[in-house]
Amino acid sequence: MASKIILNAKLRNPGICGATETLLVHRKLSSKKINLIINDLLKNNCEIYADDTIRKISPKKIYKATPKDWSTEYLSLKISIKKVKNVEDAVEHINKYGTSHTEAIISNNKKNTKYFFENVKSSILIHNSSTQFADGAELGFGGEVGISTNKLPPRGPVGLNQLVSYKYQVIGNGQIRS
Question: What whole-number distance in Å separates Cα of residue 31 and Cα of residue 59?
Answer without folding.
Answer: 11
